[in-house]
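Data card: per-record layout.
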Amino acid sequence: MASTGFAFSDVHRRDSRSTSDLPLTQERDPSQRLVDDERPSCEESASVPARETTAPLSSAVNEDPHLDEKIGTVADFEGIVGQSSALRQVLQLVEMVATSDSSVLLLGETGTGKELIAQAIHDRSRRKDRTLVRLNCAAIPTGLLESELFGHERGAFTGAVTQKIGRLELADQGTLFLDEVGDIPLELQPKLLRVLQDGEFERLGSTRTKKVDARLVAATNRDLDEMIEDRQFRNDLYYRLNVFPIRVPPLRERPEDIPLLVQYFTQKYASRMQKRIESIPAAAMRKLTHWHWPGNVRELQNLVERAVIMTRFSTLAISAPELANSGGNLGPAKVNNFDEQDRIVRILKETKGRVGGPNGAAARMGLKRTTLLTRMNKMGIDPRKRS
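The structure for this 387-residue chain is written out next.
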């Protein structure tokens, strides 16, 4: 999940030039992170006529003599781009919890940069000189997850021809990041709970108890409270994981960060592809800023990478038909299939707003819970208002 999140960077300021593009400053190192509370937000800029809102994204680098002092008051979060209040609140929580050994639960939609937040917590902890071990619980087949997490002895199962050290043991004295923790099978959850309570476990196929000292950071895009109600997740494990919850906001809740992210990803991919891109069309930037981004930062990153590939000259060639055909202030995407929208609303009323679980709307419609949530998001349907 490389660079799907945020970083402190400078936001654009109006100047007296009349131009149709937003210049990218090439002389600066794109890894510099700047914060300035007094700069106008994107929403303020979007309300001004286009000829007044076009300005360099990094024009104020040398205009504020106190800028270096402002940088010094905030830690540099590598790969995390943004200066919105929603993001700052997250980073303040990271600073608070990093120096402890408490478990952290990162909550948020897919593509919001939860892995970058986990890395930031590890980098500011007392365990920063040891390993951050990552495991995506949704990417490992159910039958192999126990072996991957806890390890196994030779002969523990068919095909176990050698001893294997699990991710938990590799993270001893360091940090273990469990992504998509909501996908851990119910029968494996008590073993993880024991690790959190007592710091003990056994490898698969062994009777020898091993001690481990690993700090746990978990992340999920699922509703664990709903999973507990549906008996898909243990409440005692939830309480152990939920010592210090941090909600990572979706991109639509921090639109003022979008120009900074576009600048960051443009410079990143232009450098990688050995291209010189000096400006971004102002009209395209306004559309990007007002899009609702159901795929969050990852979706924006992929769109910018595609644009850099298609760019032949010095102006970024944003090619986004799904955005270009939408005018003005873009809200949730309109869906032509009104029959499907009515059906979803009707079933949500019948299930009292419940989406997941055996009696939820997704099961009744024969869809995966995540698929239904994505469709609801695009249609602007809030299940809480249908209960």
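Known properties of this structure: The two ends are 35 Å apart (CA to CA). The chain is about 40% helix and 10% strand.

See the next section for split statistics.
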